[in-house]
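For practice. Supply one:
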Amino acid sequence: MIDKNNVPQHIAIIMDGNGRWAKSRGLPRTYGHREGAKRVKEIVRSAKELGVKVVTLFAFSTENWSRPKAEVGFLMKYLDGFLTREIEDMNKENMRFLSIGRRDPLPAALLKRIKAAEHKTQGNTGLTVVLALNYGSRQEILDAVKKFSEDCLQHKHEAEDLDEKLFGQYLYTHGLPDPDLLIRTSHELRVSNFLLWQLSYAELYFCDKFWPDFGPEDLKAAIEEYQNRERRFGRV
């Protein structure tokens, strides 16, 4: 049973295996992405019911641009449509939407949709849903270093001012708590350039299932595993 007093406040998810799920069924990879989007809705609402405060979903990495052009185009259009369909319901349920990652070279129409969704839900106080889109953690860290350097040149800070707390304010995730739990599906045992700074003390949970097969019961299983671990943060 899940202890409601020990639920991870921030869960990060690498939604892996959409294409392989489709391939194993003799279907085009796009079918896997469609099915994976259905799981997003289920998992987000399940997380909200369990008392999770933030869910960050790795939707599209900076490396994913190397995929076939047709697949990338489908994903961009599908993300646009997904936001169009879902943002009203998210707003009604008091959810806040955020997107992290480099905005260039995302399509202008999708960027407009993202900005509208963030603006519409900015005052909501329930579950925060973060979409990592055109995201890469090394790039995020480099961007943070550049921004801090620019502020030093403008005499807003001195190099000696820099510590972990200040550096965190320059990351895409500023204002959000670090993840307590990382979930990755499809039995891939790596973090793939995702939230490298923020995951420093997160518990890692790897699931054999492809993302389209990952449901609310699997989320509960991951949380139960999290609750059975002892988080010492370097202490004895």
